[in-house]
Amino acid sequence: MAPRTPLSPAKRRQLAVATLLCAMALLTGCLRSTQSQVLSEMNADRSAHNLRTLGTQADAQRKAQAWAEKLARENTLYHSKLSDGIGVKWCSLGENVGYGPSVPAIEDAYMASPGHKANILSTKWNGAGVGYATNGKRVFTVQVFIKTC
User: What pLDDT does residue 25 have?
Assistant: First the structure.
């Protein structure tokens, strides 16, 4: 086996940046920017109330995005059957569904609604899924909350 040539400082930086980007993608569950905005708005409200932020849970994430797309296709709003699409063992589930002109406007509406706000600010959740879809200028968001056990 031939001796390895040391990496140049530039190559070392490129490798470090690539590694960091891969790690960030894994930690965010490879969210699209629109989904990240839904998660960021929700977690900003949790942080503002001195609660820990929630990371994404794979089943909840898939469910939330699929449901947001369904709502946008149908251009209507209703809740899913909470356990559909959740294969991991769970103890509690919750869901917020909404539409409006933008993600911040929908999050504001959630926080103005006692039931939606209770879901966002509950301390029982240990994960979430977020969905984003559009129909024309109407934005649909879904937040699925999960407590795995």
Answer: 44
